[in-house]
Design a protein that fits this description.
Elements (H helix, E strand, L loop, with lengths): L3 H7 L1 H19 L3 H70 L3 E10 L7 E4 L12 E3 L4 E8 L4 E5 L7 E6 L3 E9 L2 E8 L9 E4 L11 E10 L5 E8 L8 E7 L3
Antiparallel strand pairs: 1-2, 1-12, 2-5, 3-4, 3-12, 4-5, 6-7, 6-9, 7-8, 8-11, 9-10, 10-11
């Protein structure tokens, strides 16, 4: 307290400046004379001009935040739409499988693919049904589109399926409408060849290929694929038929196992 007068004395110019500034601002905002009003307008214009860059930057920041939020909302909506489309397709596919099971005269056990390439040295997949569901070795495995393989090993709760695209898989088939028969084996991609087809058979591109019924494993007339090409070798009594199967074996999800068949 003893130093207060000395401090005020030393800072008298600053204190006076602050007092005069306060009085000037008070007069500026309380006085209603024409000169003060004009000065007030100029002060407001100057302040608005000086503040405009700050306001612009604030608006730009807010706009960027709103755009980021809108982009996030748009992405969420896109993902929701994609999910709904996928669910609709999945529902349609499952309804098709259910309808196929209802209309089929075969005894079918539905199964889900749980793994791929499970058996070494062969093209295979694992399914989630086994002997407890009536599955046995050599049971045919199909989809609503056609043959995809046969059961190789059956345990209690799961089974290993040898797929049609395995190099050692052979399937006795018949080509319609000609009725010609042959042995189908895999070559590459989704393509196969049918060997041992008589040259005099009237076969055309687009003809349907089904199981012949000659096998003890596969019943007759199960769909397999269609003809995509014909190779006529000189000096041979047979032709080679190129075929394309209906299913993409790399993307199988649900299949059926035939446990009983009507021949």
């Amino acid at each position: 307290m003893r130093n207060l007068p000395l401090t005020l004395l030393r800072n008298k110019h600053h204190i006076a400046f602050l007092i005069f500034i306060s009085l000037s601002l008070n007069l500026l905002f309380t006085e209603d004379s024409e000169e003060i009003t004009l000065l007030r307008e100029k002060a407001i214009d100057t302040f608005s001009f000086l503040y405009s860059p700050i306001a612009w930057m604030n608006n730009a920041v807010l706009l960027e935040e709103e755009n980021a939020l809108l982009r996030e909302k748009n992405l969420q909506l896109s993902l929701q739409i994609e999910s709904m489309v996928h669910l609709a397709k999945e529902n349609q596919r499952l309804e098709h499988l259910l309808q196929f099971k209802r209309e089929s005269q075969l005894t079918l056990v539905p199964a889900k693919v749980i793994n791929k390439g499970i058996a070494p040295g062969i093209m295979s997949m694992a399914i989630d049904v086994g002997t407890r569901s009536g599955i046995k070795k050599h049971n045919p495995v199909i989809t609503s589109s056609g043959v995809v393989g046969k059961v190789l090993i059956a345990s209690k709760r799961s089974s290993i399926v040898q797929l049609l695209n395995d190099a050692n898989f052979r399937l006795s088939v018949r080509i319609y409408p000609s009725g010609a028969t042959g042995i189908l084996r895999w070559t590459e991609d989704k393509y196969c060849v049918v060997n041992d087809v008589q040259k005099n058979a009237n076969i055309r591109v687009g003809d349907k290929i089904v199981t012949s019924g000659f096998s003890d494993i596969f019943p007759s007339k199960l769909p397999v694929g269609e003809v995509v090409g014909i190779l006529d070798e000189r000096g041979s009594f047979q032709i080679i038929v190129s075929a394309k199967i209906y299913d993409d074996l790399s993307s199988l999800i649900n299949v059926f196992v035939i446990t009983e068949q009507i021949k």
